[in-house]
Design a protein that fits this description.
alpha+beta
């Protein structure tokens, strides 16, 4: 059985992400596992520059950015009960989850 699970969460909305990470940590603690985190990871920022008008006014541009907030929760001493309770957690739409065994 895996001793350590790392759960990576991604979302555009940081409030939604923090709620989801807290929910996962609570569920894992109830099943008797040891929790480290949720730890914030660096926010990825994607920037896009768009010309405002076509063909003329190259100096007139508009910039947009997308921020991808990330969190990591590490679960030590996980059991089968922990894994089954984590699969039953219902996360809101817009939160990506990735589980890795370490």
């Amino acid at each position: 059985m895996a001793n350590k699970l790392r759960i990576y969460l991604k979302a555009y909305d940081h409030m939604l992400l923090d709620q989801s990470a807290k929910k996962i940590a609570e569920v894992a603690e109830k099943s008797g596992a040891e929790i480290v985190g949720p730890m914030p990871l660096p926010t990825k920022i994607k920037k896009y520059t768009v010309l405002r008008s076509v063909h003329v006014n190259k100096d007139s541009r508009e910039q947009f950015e997308m921020r991808i907030h990330r969190r990591m929760v590490e679960i030590k001493n996980s059991t089968q009960k922990t894994i089954s309770s984590l699969t039953a957690v219902n996360l809101p739409a817009g939160v990506g989850i990735e589980i890795k065994q370490a």
